[in-house]
Amino acid sequence: MNKFKQRIIEFKARLTSVSKEEPLNKLSLATIIILDLFILTLVFTGLNEHTQQLTTAAEYMPPEAQSIFIDQEWSSANRISELQPLILSDRNNYKYRYEGRFEERTIKLMHPASRTFYQQVKTLSQDKELHTLFLSRQKYVEERKKTEIAFDEAKRSYDTQLLENIANATAGTANAISTTARQYAQKIDQLSGEIRTTEQKINSQPDIQKLWVLITPDDIAREKIVSDYKHFQFWFPLKELGWQLVFLLPIFGIFYAWSARSVKNDNPIQTLIASHLLVIASLPIILKIIELVVDIIPKHFFKHLFNILQTLHLMALWHYFVIFFAIIVGLSLVYFIQRKVFDKQKMMQKRLMKNACISCNKRLPPCAKFCPFCGTRQLEECTACKQETPSGGPCCIHCGTSR
C-alpha cells in the first residue's frame, strides 16, 4: 500500500515540477494550465463535431414523421395546417445558416417511411400552383388571427363601455364599439370562408390525395415502423459510444506514446507536458466509461434486472457495485500508468547509462560518489559482496548479483 501511495505521489510531482530539484514557477504552471484548458476545449469540441456525423433519432425519424406514423396525430381536421409549414419552410426562413428540410443527404438518413414522406413533400413544395395556394392560406390565417385579436379587444371595450353606460344611462359610445365588433366578426367569417375555399382547392390536387393516403398507414405498417424506431434507439447509444472512442482513443494513444518516449529519453520538460496532456486525454474517456456503466448498461442490457431491483427497492446494490468497480478500475489505471509510463527504475537505469545523476539528471564528473548539483548519493552497498555499486543498476558491478 505504501509503495502504491508513493507512486501516486511521484505522478503528482510530475504534474507540478520539471524534476525533484526544479519545481515549476507560477508563470510556467499558469502557462501549462492554460494549455490544458485549451487542449481540453479542442478535444470536447472535436468530439462533439465528430459525434454529430452520426445519424440521430431526430434525423432518423423527424418530429413530423413521428407525429404522423407513430403518434398518428395528423387527421383530416389538421393535416393541411401541419403540412403548410413544411411546404413553405424554405420560403419562410430568413437565417443565413439555414439548412433546407429537403436536403438529399438528410433525406437519405431517414427511415424508409419518413424518406418517402419527405420526398413527396419536397415534390409538392416545388409545385408552383400548390405553393401559391398554401401561401394564400398562410396569409388568410395570419390576417384572421390579427382580426380575431382586434375583435376580442373591441368586445372587451364594448363590455366595459356597456357597464359604464348603464351606470350613466347613455348608449352612444357602446353602440359605436358594437358596430366595430360586428365588422370584425364579418371579416373573420369572410376570411374563414376564403380559408375553406383554399383548402378545398388544395385537397383537390392529385398529389395531395396521394400524400393523404401515405400518412394513414394501417396497424401492421405502424407496428413495423415503431419496431424499427425502437431498434434504432436501442443501438444508437452503443454506436455513439463506439464512434466517440474512435475519436478519443487515437488522441490518448498519441499522448501515451509521447509520454513513454519522453520518459525513455529522460526529457523532463516533455515528460511534464505529456503527463498533463495524458490526463486531459483521459478525462473524456473516463466520462464515457461512467456513462456506459451508469446509463447504457443498466438501461439496455439489464433492463429487466433493474426493473426487479426498483420493484424490491434494492437499487442501492447496483450503486455499491458501480462504486467498487470504479475504485478497482481507477487503481488499476494508476498502477498501469506508473508501471508502464513512469517507471522509476527504468528512468534511473537510463540516467546511469548517460553517466547522469539518478535524481536531477545532470551529468556527473568521472567517479563521482555524490552529485555536485543536488547532493544525491550515486552509490549503494551490494548486499552480497558488500562493495559499493552504482544506484539504479539491476546488478552489482563487482559480483554481478541481482538486486
Q: How would you explain this protein's 3D organization?
A:
This protein has 403 residues and is mainly α. It has two domains: 2-52 and 221-342, no CATH class; 75-214, no CATH class. The protein contains 16 helices and four strands. It has helices at 2-16, 26-51, 57-60, 63-70, 79-87, 89-92, 104-108, 112-125, 128-168, 172-203, 206-214, 219-264, 268-301, 303-311, 315-341, 344-353, and strands at 17-19, 22-23, 379-381, 388-390. The strands form two sheets. The chain has a two-stranded antiparallel sheet. The protein has a two-stranded antiparallel ribbon with strand order 3-4. The two termini are 22 Å apart. 15% of the residues are buried.
Largest sheet entry: 2 strands, antiparallel
Number of strands: 4
- Order of strands side by side in the largest beta sheet? 1-2
Helix-strand topology string: HEEHHHHHHHHHHHHHHHEE
What is the total number of structural domains? 2
Radius of gyration in whole Å, from Cα?
A: 37 Å
Which blocks of ≥5 consecutive residues have pLDDT under 50? Answer: none
Broad shape = elongated
Mean pLDDT score, rounded? 82
Number of helices: 16
Strand content: under 5%
- Helical content class: over 70%
End-to-end CA span: 22 Å
Structural class: mainly alpha
